[in-house]
Amino acid sequence: MVIYLQNIFRFFLALFVQLLVINWVDFGSASPYIYPLFYVIFIILLPLSTPRPLLIFLAFLQGIIIDAFMSTGGLHASSLLTLALLRPSILRFLAPREDIDINRPFNSKYIGFRRFVTYLSLCILIQHFWFFSVEFFKFSELHIIIWKTLTNSFFTLLLILIYDFVSQK
């Protein structure tokens, strides 16, 4: 029961932080290049025992809510769905099933900091690359897509690591 409440809290926290904090922060002249997508934390940190159809539904629900508030026409939903579809493969690649108990909380304390950061980095890079590729949708803008993917992935990773550190205290 506690794990469900934690995930419901994380769902609303991700929406709140993205829609009411990050979207209203002015980074000055760096604003076009700094746009952390903190809301990915919900999909990334869902329990490993989450059934795939539920994972896809929750990714779509969260993405469509963000799209509705930001008038982005499915951009966030498509990038979260891409992440939700690839997440099981990323987990299989990084952590064989017998190595992880699917009923334990998925955080740096349980699986180790290095593996956790690798998992976060891969998930964030994939989601951000899809997001900015669909946003620009031009091969001639590949350098901007890569630059925005890397810079925003760094800031998103930093925010999620801060959340992970604070939530374990």
Indicate the proportion of strand residues: under 5%
DSSP strand count: 0
Per CATH, which architecture?
Orthogonal Bundle
Number of helices: 7
H/E series: HHHHHHH
Low-confidence stretches: none
Q: What global shape is seen?
A: globular
What profile does the largest beta sheet have? none
Gyration radius over CA: 16 Å
Kindly report how far apart the N and C termini lie.
Answer: 20 Å
Structural class estimated from helices and strands:
mainly alpha
CATH fold label: Arp2/3 complex 21 kDa subunit ARPC3
Which range best describes the helical content: under 10%, 10-25%, 25-40%, 40-55%, 55-70% or over 70%? Answer: 55-70%
Average pLDDT level:
87
Label this structure with key terms.
169 residues, mainly alpha, Arp2/3 complex 21 kDa subunit ARPC3, 70% helix
If you had to describe this structure to a student in words, what would you say it looks like?
- The chain has 169 residues and is mainly alpha-helical.
- The chain has one domain (2-26, 33-167): Arp2/3 complex 21 kDa subunit ARPC3 (Orthogonal Bundle).
- It contains seven helices and no strands.
- It is globular, with a radius of gyration of 16 Å.
- The relative contact order is 0.13.
